[in-house]
Structures
1.
Amino acid sequence: MIPIKSLVRRTAPAAALCLAALPGQALDPGAARVEEGAAPGTAAAAPRLKPLPPPSLNFYGSPGTIDMPSAEMLPDGQYAVSYSWFGGQSRYNLTFQALPWLSASFRYNGIQTNGEEIGGFSTYYDRGFDVRARLWRERRWLPEVTMGLQDFAGTGIYAAEYFVATKRFEGQALGWGRGSGRLKVSAGLGWGRLGSHGAIGSTGGSRPSFTAGDTGGELATDQWFRGDVAPFAGLEWQPDARWSLKAEYSSDAYTLETGGPDVFERKSSFNYGVEYQYSERVRLGGYYLYGSEIGLTAQIQLNPKHPPTPLAVPAPHPVVPRTQWATEQAHWTRDWAASASRKRQIRDLAAEALKADGLVLEAITLAGTEAELRYRNLRYRSESQAAGRAARALAQTMPPSVETFRLVPVRGGTGLAAVEIRRSDLEALEFDPDAADALLATAGIRDAGPLPQEAIFSDELYPAFATSVSPYTQPAYFDPDQPFRLDAGVDFAASYAPAPGWRIAGALRQRIWGNVEGGRASNSVLPHVRTDQSEYAQYGTTLENLYVSRLWKPGSNLYARATAGLFESMYGGVSGEVLWKPVNSRLGLGLEANYVVQRDFDQRFSFRDYRTFTGHASAYYELDRGYQLQLDAGRYLAGDYGGTVSLNREFDNGFLVGAFFTLTDVSAEDFGEGSFDKGFRFRIPVDWLLGKPSRSSFGLTIRPTQRDGGQKVTVPGRLYAPVRAAHRRSLEEQRARFWE
C-alpha cells in the first residue's frame, strides 16, 4: 500500500489516501462562470432567444383591445400585473397564464362617485375573478376563439360572459407594402356587462342587475350566458414592434356608473388608443374612451422561463476518469477501508470539496467499493444540481476502489432520499450529449433509510448556533377605508441545533414603520381567529416565534415532525405531523394534529382565553407541467369542519403561482363578505431576479377578504415541500441540471 502523503489540494482528482495528485491533473479552482444551461465544464454563455412581445392587455388585465377582450392568450406561464384608470375608475389586475389554453385573473377595482354613493361609499371598492379558455387556435383561415367568464365569483358588478374571435393579418399580405406591420381584428358576443349596449337578442331570459352590499363569492352559474347579448369588436395595428394603434366598439353601457353615482358620461360606443412597448416587460398606453374620458394603463409582464438576469454559477469541476491517474494495481486496493484514521482524512477531504460548492457534509459512510454521503444543500434550489456537485466532490476525493456513490440530501438531520450512481457512469457520460437521460436510466432513487451505524459525522456541525438579521413586510389588503396597508421592520432570528433532527429557534420582530394598526375592527360572528390583525399590529417590539422541533424517519417512506412553543404571531401550542411519501411515487399522504392557544395581542408570553384543537388529513399529488394538487380535510381554527383544495404550479427555477379555496360547515351568511375562504399565492426566487445561486425566495398569499372561517395555524417546518423536492419526480424534471 502506498503511504499517505500530505493532504492534497481540493482540486486533486484522486484520493489522498492512495496516491498524490499526478502532474498535470490539478483542476482549476477559479473556473469560469457559465450561464444556466451551458454545457458542463464550458465557459461560453448559452445563446438566449429573445421572446416576442406578448399580447397587450385590456383595462381588465386580460388580452384585449382597450375595454373589450380579444381571443389571444399570453405565453404559457406568463404573469402579468397591470393598472388602468379612466373616468374615476381604477383597476388593479393580476393575470396568470396557467396553461397554454387557460388563464385566470384577479382584479381590485375602485369606483369614485360624483353623485349618489354605491353601497354607502363615495369610493366603492370591489374584487373579482376572471377565467378564460381558448376553444381553438388560429389557423390559415380560421381565427383564434376564446370563451371568457368575467367577475364570475365576485359581487357581480363587472359580471359578463363572452365568446370572442381574433385573426391576425400581415400588412404585406393585405397589399400595404413591406414593413407595414401587423393588423389584429377581434369580434365577439357578450352577455351581462358586455351585453348591456346594442343588444341584438336575448338568451335564457333576463338576469338580475348588480346590488350593492352583496357579500359575493358565490358562483352565479344560473346567470351565465343569460339575458341580452350584444356584439363588440376591435382593431389593433402594430406598425412595428414598439407601437400599437387601437380602436374598438364597446358593448358595455356602464349602466351603473352613468346612473345615480354619475361616475362619467358615456357619449359614444367607440374607444381609441395608442400603446408603446417601453421594454421587453413594460407596456404603456393612453386612450380616449366613450367620447368623454382620457384613460391610462401600465402593464408589467414576467415569465418564469425568461428571468431578467441569466443564472450564472461557477462551472463544475470536470470528472477525471480513474484510468488516467490510478495507473497501477496498487492504487485500486481496498486496504484503506480498514483504517479509521484514513476514513476520517477522506471525510475531511470530501467536506472541503463540498464546502467549495456550497454543500455541507453531514455524515459519510465508507466501505471498500461504496461511499454514502449525507449532505446539506445550502446553495442550489435544484436538488438535482446539488446531487451533481456532490457526486463530483466524491469523484475528486474517493480512492479508486470506490465505485458506488450513494447521495443522500439531508434536512434537519433526516435523509430525504438516496440517489445511487456508478462512478464509472459519471466518468463516461460527462460529455455525452444524452448524459442527463442516460444517467437517470442507470441511477437508482430509493428511500434514504436509517443512518448507518458506521457513519462518520462531521466534527464541526453539532452543536450548531446561527443568527440572522433580515427585513420583513406584513401587508393587509382591501380595507374599504384604505385598500392597502403595510408594516415593515427587522427580524432578529437565532437557532440552536444540539443534535441531528433537533432545533430550537426564535425571532424578535421590531416594527419600524407601518399603518396596519389603523385597520378596521373585526365584525365577525365567528371566533376572531384571524380578523384581529390590527390588534396584533399595535406593538412595536414583539416575539414572532420561539419553538423547539424534532424531525425524524420512523420507518421506510415515512417522515415525522414534532413542534412545541410559539409557532407564529397569533398562536402557540404543540403540533405533530406524519408524512407518507414513497420516493418514486407522485402521491403523498399526511396527517397533522395541533393543539393551540391564541397569543395575547402584545405577542410576548401571555395568552388569551381561546384554545382549540385543529388538524387535517392531506393528500398530495404531483401532476404534469409542474402542477401540484393538495387536498386537506379536517378542523380549522374557528372550530369549523371542511376541506381545502390547493393547486400550485412550480417552475424548475422555483417560481410558483397557485390558488386555493376552502369550504366548511360555516354558512355564507356567518362567514361574511366573500362567502368562503379563497385566494392565490405566488413566490419569486431570489436567484431568478439576481442571477446568483440562492435558496431564498419571497412571496405573498392574497385573499380577497380575510375572514375567520377556514383558517389554519402556521407551523414552521412542515414536511411535504422539502421532501418532495428531493424525490424522483422533481429529480427527473431537473435531470439536466445534474451536470451544471
2.
Amino acid sequence: MMRIFMPWMAAIGLLLGSLPAVLAIPLPEGTVVPAPAVLEPPPAPIWSREYSLADMGRAGDVLLLGIRNSVQLELPLRRDRVVTAATLNLEYHPSPALLAALSHLRVYLNDRLMGVLPAVGEEPLALGQPLRRQVALDARLFGDFNRLRVEFVGHYREICEDPANSALWLSIGQGSTLQLIEQALPATQDLAHFPAPLFDARDNRALELPMLFAADVPLAERQAAAILASYFGSLSDWRGARFPVLLDRLPEVALDRPPQHAVVFATNARRPALLADRQRFPDVSGPVIERVAHPESPYASLLLIRGRDSADLQRAVTALALGTPLLRGARVEVGELPALPVRRPYDAPNWAPVDRPVRLGELIDYPQQLQVSGLLPPPVTLDITLPPDLFVWRNQGIPLSTRYRFTANERGDESRLTVRINEQFIDSLPLRSREQRGALDELRLGLSDRQGSGENERLSIPSLKVGASNRLSFEFSFAASVGSSQQDRCQTVLPASVYGAIDEDSSIDLSGYHHYMAMPDLAAFAGSAYPFSRMADLSATRMLVPAEQGEASLTSLLEVFGHLGARIGYPAFAVQLFDDWAVASAEPADLLILGQWPAALQAAGVLPLQKGLADHLLAGAPPRTPLSEPQTVASTAVTLSAAAPLAAVVGLQSPLYPQHSLVALLADSDAEHHLLQEALADPARRAEIRGSLALIRSSGVVSQTVGEPYYVGELPWWWLLWFHLAAQPLWLAGVAVLVVLLGSFLIWRLLRGVARRRLEER
C-alpha cells in the first residue's frame, strides 16, 4: 500500500511547492488590487436623558436636617444599554444660619464618593434663592440598580452645637436632575430573557411596545393580540403601557433615541411584508415564537408570533403569558399547553384577598419595606387595593392586628407609633419602655363608605375608600434628648441609632364582607377595571368591536386591554371578542363596547349619548360625590354638531341582563381614538372619568351622572331593606310607624288573650 501512495504523495508535494511561485507572478504595472471588503457594524444609538427627583422616587422637595441628614435616590436602568457619561445637577436652598467654612454636601454613587459641594455659596444670596451646582459622576459605576446618596454636613456654630437645632436644614428642590448619556447594546436574540427587552422591570417609564400586523386583521388575531397586551399591561402596572399598531410597516429606528422593539403577528396565509421571503421565513406547522433583529438595526429586536392560523397565534400568546421557564434560544415551537387555572371571583392578583386575614408580609413590594431607622424615620407604608363593591356601610371597622418592634429605652418616654389610613388618623400607640413594652395591639380601622349617613359621622370616623389604592402607614416617633447647650456648660450628645419595624405576621382581616354596589360608576372602571375585573381572566366579559379596524382603532383596543391588565394584574386569557351585537349579547356577561353603539341599542332610544353626524346627549347633574347617596337626576336632550373630535365613556345597565353592566368606549375617527387613548394613559385624566357619562375633549374630561342607579351584588334581605330605607326618611318613618302599630296590635291581642284566659279560669 505504501508503494501505491508514494507517487501520489510526491505529486501533491510538488504541486504545493510550486504554489508560492505561481502566487509570486508579478502583475502589470498600474494594476490596483482591491482590498477585501470589511463590513463595519452600524453605529450604536446614543441619546441623552434627564431624570428628575420624581423619576428617582421623590415626588417633592427633600428636606435634610441635622439628625436626618441624608437622602437616597434610586435609579434602575435597563440591561440593554450602558451609561457613557453622567452629571448630577443639584438645586438646593441652604439655611441662612449655616457656616460657609464648615457646611458642605457629600455625593455618593453606589457608595463611592463622587464629590463634595459647599452648602453655602461664596457670595450671600437673598433668602429663598437656590444654589445650583454640578457633580460629574463616574459612568463606569452605573449598573442595573443604582443608589445616589446626598449627605448634608451642617454647622451653625463652631462649638456647643445641638444636632436637632431647627437652624440646621437644607432643602433639595425638584429642579435637581440627573443627566445621563446612554448607549444601546446589541440585542441578544435569546428568548431566555423574555419579557426583556420588550419589557424591562427596571425601566420606570411607561411601556411603549408597537405591534405589527398584516392589513385587515381578523377577529381571532385581534383577540390574540389583546391577550398579549393585557399580559404586558399586567407587567407594566403603575407605569402604564402604550401599544401603537403598525399595519405592514416597521417601527422607525434612529441614532439619537433608544431602539424600538416590537411584536409581529403572522400566519401562513397572512403575513406582513417583513416576512414575505418564504425561504427565510417558511410556513410553520404549529405555533412558533421567534426572536429576530430589526432589519435596519441590530440594536432593536422583533418578537415574531407565527402560526398556521389565528388559533395557533392564541396558543403562542398564551404560552408567552404563562411565563414558562422553558423558553430559550432564538426559536421555540409551542406544543400542548397545560389547562389554565380556574379563577374565582375577586381573586385578582392586584387586590388584597377578601376571604381571609391577610399578612402584611404578603403586601410588601421589597424585603425591607416594613423597617425604618433614625430619630425622624419616614413612615412605613403599604398599598392596599380592594374590590370597589365591598359593602362596608355602617360597619364597625376592619380588624388590624399589629405586631411591631423598636429600639426600647430603659425608661418610658413619649415615643409613639401613629397609624393612618389614606393620611387620616386612626390611632396612636405608646412605645413603652423595655419593661412595659407589648408586642401585640389590636386596632380597628374605622371606615365609612360612599353612602355615609351624615357629615358628623364622616368627620369622626376615618374614611376607607374601597376600590382605590389605599395607603396604610405606620409612623414611628422617637422622643430623645439629642444635645444641650447651657450658659455655663457645653455638652453635645450624638443621637443613638434607633430602629422600628412592623412584623410581617401582622394582619388585616377583610373577610366576611358582602359585595353590593350602586352602578353605573365609571370611576370603578377607570380605577379598578370593575365590573370586568370581578373575574381576573375576564371569563365573564364579552367585548364588541367594529368588524373592520384601522391602526387607530386597533391601538385603542390593545390599550384598553393594557389598562385592564394593569388594574387586574393578570392576562385576559378567557376574554371573547365579537363583531356582531346579537352574538355578543346572547349570553349573560358584562359587555365592553369599543367604537360605536350597535344599531339595536340606538333604535331603543335609551342611550345617554349617541354619536354621529349630530351628537345627541342627555345632559344631567354633575357627578355625585363619593359619599353621597345615589339619586335620580333630571335629564334634558341636547343635539349638537361640531367638527372637533369628541370621545366618550358611557356606563349603563345591560338591557338584557339586569345584574350585568355595559361600558362603551365611543370613538369614530382617528382623532377621537387618540383622545380616548390619552385619557386612559394619563392618571390625572383617568381620575376624572366617573359617574355614568364621561366626555373626552381636547380640553380635558367632563363627567356627568345621568339616569337612575341600579345595583349589582347580593345582600341579606334585612341588610337590603335597611340600606335602601336609610336613604328614604319618609319611607323609614312610615315603616317604623307600621312596625309600631303591628307590634302594638300583637301585644294587644296577646294581652287580650291572657285576660280572657284568666276570666275563664275564674
3.
Amino acid sequence: MKYFFVSTPIYYVNARPHLGHAYSTIVADSIARFHKLAGDTVFFLTGTDEHGDKIVQAAQKAQMDVQRYVDDISSSFQELWPHLEIENDDFIRTTMERHKACVQYVLQKVYDSGDIYFAEYEGLYCYGCERFYTEKELVDGKCPDHQVEPTRIKEKNYFFRMSRYLDALRRHIEEHPEFIQPERYRNEVLAMLREDLGDLCISRPKTRLTWGIDLPFDTDFVTYVWFDALINYISALGYPGDDRFRKFWSGAHHIVAKDILKPHAIFWPTMLMAAGLPLYKGLRVHGYWTVGETKMSKSLGNVVAPLDMAQRYGVAAFRYFLLAEMSFGQDASFTEEALVQRFNADLANDLGNLFSRTLTMTHKYCGGRVPECGELTELDREVLSIGHNALANFQGQFQHFHFSRAVASLWELVRHLNKYIDKSAPWALFKAGETIRLNTVLYVVLEGMRKVALHLWPVMPSLSEAMLEQLGWKWDLAAVDLEGETSSWFGLQPGTPVAASSNLFPRKEVVAAPKPEPKTAAPTKEAVDFEVFSQLDLRVGTVVEALPHPQADRLLLVRLDDGGTEPRQVVAGIAESWKPADLLGRQVVFVANLKPRKLRGQVSQGMILAVKTKDGLALLSPTSPVPPGSVVS
C-alpha cells in the first residue's frame, strides 16, 4: 500500500481567502483525489498560520482581541473549502495545543543537540516579512516584497545553526532532481546555497512580541514565526508519537507559491536534519495569479474572491479554469472573460456537445441503453489508440503536477471522439440499417466518455460523478482501476440504461453592467407575408471545421455537421469578429434551403445567422446543445 501526503502552506491570517489561496488548495485537493483514484492512502493537510507581529497589528487595526481575530479569519478559510469541493483530512492551526507541544518538543530536541545558541545580533529587519535581511538581499535598499526600507535592530536572540547543514542540503538537492520542482526553482535554491546564508534567528524577545509559542528553554522569548509554522507539517501527523507520521511522512509533498520558496526549501529541510528526521519527498512550487496582467492588490480593488467566482460561474468552471489555465510554476492571468471563454470552448462546446449528441443518439437509435460492441474497424482502433495514449499521458502529467498539460491531453480524446462521430455518421448508419456498425460506434464513444468523466474526477468531482451517472456507471472509488483504464476499452456493460439527454455545461456569459443604448429606432425592412417567411428552413449545425477563405480576408469557410452524411460548407462573412479556432464545436443557426452559390470561388451551401452589435457579430446559438440538423421553429 502506498501512502501519499500533500499539504498546502498554512495561510497567514492577516487577510481573508483570495484567489492565490484557492489555487494552492484546489491543486492540493486535485492531486489528493488523483492519488485516491490510483488506490493510494492519502492524507491532505491545510490550515492557518496565526502567530507573529503582523497578526497583532492586524488585530489592533480591526480593534479586536488577537485570539478572537485569528478565530474569525481562520474560520473563513475552513468555511470556504467545502464550497469549492475541497475535502481536506485535517485543518491545523498554529494556536492549537497539539501544535504548540510539537514545536516545543522539536525546539528542545535541537537545543539539546547543540544546534541552538544565544547571541547578540544587529541586522536589517522587515516587519512585513518578520525576518532579517542581508544587504545583498535588498533591492535599492528596500525589502524586495514590501518595497520599504527595513529597520535596523540590535538585540539578543537565539539562533539555529543552519549553516551546519547547508552543504548536506545542497548535495541532497543535486542528487535528487525531483526534490524541488519545477526545475527553475530548484536552480534558484541552488543559487541561494552558493551564498553565505549564515545561521537563522529563531526567537523574538517578549519585550517586543508576546504573541507566539514560548521557547521551552527560555520563556522570556517566543518562537520565530517560520520555525513555528513549518513544523505544522509534522505536528498534524502527530509527531513524535503518532503512527500517522511513520506512515505518511515518507510520501510528503508540499505545495507552495514561489514567494515562500526559501523557508520551505532551506529553513525547513535543515530544521529536519537538525532534529534527526528524514526530509520530505518533494516541494512543488507554483507562480502568481495576476488579474488582467496586474498583481492582485486590495488598494487596486482587484482581489478575486474565490466564492464569488464559484457562485457566479459554478465550482466546476472555476476549478477547471484554474488547473487548465496556469502552467504550474509560471505566472498566469485571471479574468472572468478568459474563464467564460475557456468554459464555453472546452466544456460547453467540446465535452457538453459530446455528451448531448451521444446520449440523444443512444436513445434515438438504441432504445436508451448501452449497445453491444461489434467487431472493431481500423477507424475504431484508431480511437482506442488515441484514447489510451491520451489517458496514459494525462495520468503521467497529472501525477507530476503538470495539470494544464494533463487537461490538454485529455481534451485530445474529447475532440477526437467528436471527430469520430462526424466521420462515422451514426445518423447515416441508422438510415442505412447498419445496426451492428451503429452499435459499435456508439459503444466506442460512450466508453470514451466514461473514461473522460472518470479522469476528470480530480478536477471537477461533482460533475464527474454526474457525468458517470448519466452513463449508468455506478461511482465507486474503491473499485476504480486507474492503470487498467489505459489498456481496456470495455468498462460499460451493454444494456445499461443511460440518460435521455445532458445539459451539464450550459454556455455562460460574463455578467457586465449594461451600457446605455441610443434612443433611436432600429431601421426596419418592408413586411413580408407569413407564407414567404415560412419557406425558410432554419436549422442548427455544429462547426466541425473552420478555415480562412484563400481569397477574402473577411470570409471564413465553415463546415457544419447538419445531421447529414457529409458536412456542409458555408462561406460566412464573420472573419473580422471570429477566429476559426473559436468556432470549432460551436452550434450555430443557418439557412439550410438557400440555393448553392459561389463566393470568391468557394461554394456556399447556406447562410449562418448573426446579429450585428457595437462589438462585432454575435452568432445565433441554441441555449443548450441540440442534435445537429435540429429545425428552428
4.
Amino acid sequence: MSGERRFFRRDRLTGHIAIGVVGVLCAAAVVFGVGMASAKYHLSDVGGWLTSVHRGELVHVNGLSGKVDGKVTLSGSTGHPMKVIQQGGVVLIVDEVTGVVSRVDPAHLNVVQGATFRGAAGMQVVSGSGQAYALDQQKGSVQRLDPMTLATMGSPLGLTGPLGSAGIDATSVLWVPVPTNGQAAPVRSGQAAQPIGIGRAGDDLSLTIAAGAPVITDFTSAQAVIIGKNGTQIKVRLPSTVAQVGKGSVLAPASTDGQLVPLLAGNSLVVLNTGSGSISSVALKLPPKHKLAAPQALGQKVYIPDQSSGDLIVYDSATNRMAPQVPVTGQAGPLDAFVKDGLLWVNGPDSAKGVVVDGAGGHKPIQKYTPDVPGSQKSPVPRVGVPAGGASGRPKPGGGGPTAPSHPRLPTKPPVTPPTHKPDPPKVTPPNAPTNLRATPQPDGTIKVDFQPGGGGDATGYKLLTSDGLTATPDKIGANGPDYTFTVNGGTCGQEYQFAVAALYHNRDHDSEVDSEYTTPTLSCTEPDAPSNITGTGTAQGAKIDWQAPPNADNKKVTYAVNVTGPKTGSNPNLTGTSVTFGDIWKNGTYTVKVTASNPAGTKSDSKTVTLKGPSVNYVGQHAGNPGDKSWLHQTPSNDDTNVYITDYNGQNLLVDCQKIGGHFAHSNGDPYYAGNLWDYIHYQGKEGYIIGYLVATPKQPDWQNYNGLPLWECAD
C-alpha cells in the first residue's frame, strides 16, 4: 500500500484512535450548474460553510448577501449529521455516522482527502492556527494531524478520559478540559505541557476560545479561569446560579470573536468580559420548556438559538432590552450557530434554511437549496392594488364610496339633570412588572441595577427592593425615567445579593405595587486589578519583595500571594500589606517574582524578573601569619593559580560580599583547624577575590564547612 493510503490499525494507536487516510473521496461539486469542479472557482472571502443533512451537501454562503455561491455533495453522507470545522483556509467535514473526516478544496470545490476515524461518536476533530487534532473523548487519546492531508503526526497522547470539548488558541496551543482531574491540559505541537489546575476532580469544566485566548469555566465551583498569552491567569468568581442549575445544564459557546463570553444558566444570562474580568448578569424571560442552544455574542447583542421554535432570541446589552426575534427555520429542529468573520451564522442542518447576522443586528435569510448568483434573481414585484377598492370601482368597506343622503335633524328634548351622588373611583389597570433586571458589580464596590418598564397600566414610579443594610440611589425613579438604573451601596465584598424592582401605581384610595422577579445572585465587588511595580532587594534579613497595590484595594478586601522562584524558592499565600521578606532566600541570582491580588470575586497577577544580591558585611581579618606573609585571593572558590594577594590584614576590616562552598583547602602545617571548603569573596585595599574561610572572623567560626547564613548571602553559581 502506498504512503498516501496508509491505514493504521487500532493497535497502532494504542487502542485509542484508528485513523486511515482512505484517499481522495469522490464528491460532486455544483456551482450554479457550471458542472464538475475541474476549474477553479472564487468564493467570497467573507463566507461560511453550512451543512444540509437531507441532501448530504456542504454549501458555501456569501456573508454579505446571504446567497449560496458554491456547494459540495458528499458521497455516502445523505441523511448523516455532519460537523464543519472552518478555520483560516482549512475546511474539514466530519461525518458523525461513518467517522469519515474530509477536507474541502475551496478553489476547486471538491473533497481532496479523507480519513476514517473509528468510533466517531466519541471523537472530536479540531483545527486552527495551523494545527489539527483528533481526540477520542471517551478514552482520552489526543492525536496530532496534518491539517492538509489528515495524516497522523507522531504518537498519540494519553489523557484521563472522558475529555471535554477542546479548542486551539491564537498561539497554536490545543487546550483540553480534563474534568476527571479538574485540570486543563495544554498541548504544543503534539507535545503535552504542564496542566493547569482549574477546580476539584470531577468538576464540570467547559472551554471557550475568546478572541484567541482560552477561558476554562468550572460550572461546579462557579469560577472562570482566563489564560493570558504569557501564561498569566485571571480567576473570576461567577454567580452561584451557575453552580445551582445542575451538571451539564449551563450553555456556553465553543468560541467567540470578541472578549465577551455569554453563559446561559436557566433564565440567567451571565456575560464575562475576558479583557477586564468583569461580569454582568440579567434575568431573562425565556420560553418555558424550550430547548435552547449555547448563546453567541456579536457586537452588543447576545443571540440564543431556540431549537423548539427555529428562531433566535435576541438580548441587546446596550439597551438592556429584548430585541425582536430573528427567524431561522421557523420549525423545531437542531440549530448550529457560530461567529466567524464578524458575522453570526445560524444553520438548520435538517432544514433548507439558515440566517447570517451582522454586527449591527441586521440579518439575511439563507436558502441553501437555491444556489442563486447574488443579484441575478430578482424578487417578484408585488401587485399594486387600486385605491379605494378594486378595478370595478365598487366602494371599499369603511369609506371611499358615494356620499350618503342627508336627513333633517329632529328636535331634541331638554337635558335631564341626573340625581347628585358621589362618582365611583375609576377602575385601575395595574402596570406590568418590570423586566430585564440586570445587576452589574462596579469597581468601586457598588452594584448597578438597571431594568425596563413592563408597560401596561399607569405606573407612578419604580423603587428597588433590596436586602437590609443596602441603600439605593435614587430612592425612586419616575414613571418616565428616562434612566432606569439604581446604584446600590453598602454591600460586603464576597457576599451575593439579589434585587427586584417594584412598579408603583395608585389603586383607587391607596398605593400599590407590582414586583418583578429577582435578579441572579450578584457579588458587590469585582476582582482586583493586578499589582504593579514589583521590586526585589537583597537584605540582611533575606529577600525583600515590594509591590504597589491595585486601585481600590481597601474597598475590595484585597489580599496577596507571593511566589518567588529561582536559585531558591519561597512563597506566602496570604498577605495584607504590600511587602514581604523571605528569610530563607539568601542566594545571589536571578529570580521570578509573581504577585497575585485576590478577593472573593477573583484574582489577577503580575510577574517580574529581578536580580537579588545580598548586602556586603565587614568582618575582621585573622590568622594572617607574620608581617609580610601573603594570603592569596582566587577567581573561583578553590586553590586555583593566582597572582593577587593581600598582607598584614590581621585586625583589619575585610568587606565580605558573599560565601561559597568550593574546593577543599588544607594548611601545610597539617592542623585540621585550618582546613575547610568555605570561601569568602572579599574586598580589601582595592583587591578582590575568594579567600579561604578561616582567614575571616565570620560568625560561625571555627566552622569552615558550612554557610554562615544571614546576614551573609551565598554567592551566585
